[in-house]
Amino acid sequence: MKWIIRIGIVTVGIPSLAIGLLVLARFRPGVGHVSSAIDVNRPAADVFRWISRPELMERWFGGISEITRVAPTDLTRVDERIGDHFRAVETDKDQTTRTDLDMTVTEFVPNERFGLQIEPLGDPATSFTEKAQYRLSEVGGTTHVEFETQTTFHGRLSRSFEPFITSASRTKFQHDLERLKVLVEAETATEIH
Q1: What share of the chain is helix, strand, coil (3-state, %, to 5)?
Q2: Alpha carbon 104 to its chain's center
Q3: Span 63-92, pLDDT tens digits
């Protein structure tokens, strides 16, 4: 009789507890929110270039292998950068899963703020909307970079695994900022266009 109870606990009780905890985790404060910060020993203009130019973003934003402009705008007018539309290809660290992303510039204040809205194309079960913002403040030639993102998960699968996705995103975004810092600080004056 005891072995029946033990089998019941292992096959029904533990999975039920895990599912219950995942459901409850969806109601905690800060669901889908990630923030990170780093100081870069370069002027804000240098950092902003790396954050706002797709060809440079590809070099430091982990997992992005290509970013292509879909809706080009006249880049001679700064205010027209808002609404710029890009497609990006993101792959996992094993290079086995590809996700096509739709990216739209939502905020563009040179050397101060840059915002994006990101949505995946394809499988509705894993869909989400991510609103990301970079804020820069410079003091004495050092730029403090704050990154904040709020992700709303739409698909049942992505909502179910949100706690794990958010935790992994927190680590990934901090590594991205560290890579950004290394690249910007290593850039020489001749490389800046």
Answers
A1: 40, 35, 25
A2: 13
A3: 888 888 887 655 555 455 888 889 888 887
